[in-house]
Write a structure and sequence with these properties.
The protein has helices spanning 35-47, 52-84, 90-102. With 104 residues, the chain is mostly helical. The chain has a domain at 35-102. The radius of gyration is 23 Å and the shape is elongated. The chain starts with 34 loop residues before the first helix and ends with a helix. Residues 1-11 have low confidence and may be disordered.
Amino acid sequence: MYASFSQTPQVQPRRKPSKGTASGSGARYTVGLAPNLAHQVESYAKANDSSMSKAIAALVRIGLEGQERRKREFFKKLRSNLASADPSQEDELVDEFRSLILGH
């Protein structure tokens, strides 16, 4: 038999973890990883003596921090270039940085 599906997805709320768990109040997600990426995460987890969940959480945090750092460096460089640039070249610099960001 086929299962019937409703128009709106049904989301089952997760039980709150008990006070004795290490996960605390953090959100839980299920993710699918490509085989080679899963292998890299397993290697990272093994090297850091942690679980896959903790390894994924650490890698996401590291990635987000790196992205934020690159963004700050980018805008610092942009402000520096705009401040030292000839005002007639300002639009050209803005367009150049815009193309770097958007890839156009």
